[in-house]
Design goal:
Layout (H helix, E strand, L loop, with lengths): L1 H10 L6 H14 L3 E3 L13 E3 L5
Parallel strand pairs: 1-2
Helix pairs in contact: 1-2
Length: 58
């Protein structure tokens, strides 16, 4: 999984706190998870294939 994270970080030019979201996005990619429940949907816009769901919309 660390290889997937390293690819995301370098390809998407991720740095700082955004690296935490990249780690989650990498894990999601490795395990085939396509949706994430989050209040910070904008943080995942850079990762194609990930759909965000806001808790307030459920």
């Amino acid at each position: 999984m660390s290889d997937a994270w390293a690819k995301l970080v370098s390809h998407r030019l991720v740095s700082g706190k955004q690296a935490h979201d990249a780690h989650l996005a990498a894990a999601m990619g490795v395990y085939g998870v396509r949706r994430v429940l989050t209040f910070n949907g904008d943080d995942f816009k850079r990762y194609p294939g990930i759909t965000t769901l806001n808790p307030a919309s459920i």
